[in-house]
Amino acid sequence: MSAPPKRPPAPALLLRDVVKEYGTPPLRILHGVDLAVAPGELLAVVGPSGSGKSTLLALIGTLDRPTFGHIALEGHDLADLSDRQVAALRARRIGFVFQQFFLLPGLTTVENVATGLLYTGESARRRRERAVQALSDLGLGHRLDHHPDQLSGGEKQRVAIARAVVGRPGLLLADEPTGALDTTSGHGVMEVLRSLNTDGTTVLVITHDRDLAASFPRRIGIQDGRIAFDEHVGGRIAVGEDSAVTHIGAASGLGLDTRGRSEGGPT
Ligand SMILES: Nc1ncnc2c1ncn2[C@@H]1O[C@H](COP(=O)(O)OP(=O)(O)OP(=O)(O)O)[C@@H](O)[C@H]1O
Question: Which residue intervals define the domain ABC transporter in the entry (predicted)?
Answer without folding.
Answer: 13-250
